[in-house]
Specification:
single chain, alpha+beta
């Protein structure tokens, strides 16, 4: 039993898969814990791969390294799961959800910097809105607009 599950806090994990050279896939999942009794099986929050991940990969890997998660030795076809802190899971989940439908590289970089600058509470608010609203695409569009205006 992981520390997050035993402590009664929500538990998250990063699922990584090396699909090929320079083709990494990252997904953030919420896993069942005592803090989330309604969750019976893992729930995917968001994922990112391919060229979209390459745009923010350096920043994401630095954050993972700070949590002692290294994906450097992942070989083609291999996958792994690593526990994530709640703060990092929320920030990465929001980042992945926000960037997944985007195409403009400049806008993607601007939005990524904006999410990096967000406080914990702000990223939790936006991720909650994007996950639990009737029209999450509108929430994400509003966030993109706010981050691009700065």
């Amino acid at each position: 039993m992981t520390q997050a599950i035993a402590s009664g806090r929500p538990a998250y994990e990063l699922r990584s898969k090396q699909r090929g050279p320079s083709d990494l896939e990252l997904e953030v999942w919420q896993v069942p814990s005592t803090a989330t009794p309604e969750l019976k099986e893992p729930k995917r929050l968001a994922g990112l791969s391919g060229h979209k991940l390459l745009i923010v990969e350096g920043s994401v890997l630095r954050k993972l390294k700070a949590e002692k998660v290294s994906l450097a030795k992942l070989k083609k076809g291999e996958s792994r799961r690593d526990a994530l802190s709640e703060d990092l899971a929320m920030a990465m989940g929001l980042l992945f959800k926000l960037l997944a439908p985007m195409r403009n590289v400049t806008s993607m970089e601007t939005c990524a910097r904006g999410i990096d600058a967000m406080a914990r509470e702000e990223s939790a608010y936006w991720l909650g809105m994007a996950m639990h609203r009737k029209n999450p695409r509108r929430v994400l569009a509003a966030l993109r607009l706010l981050l691009s205006a700065n």
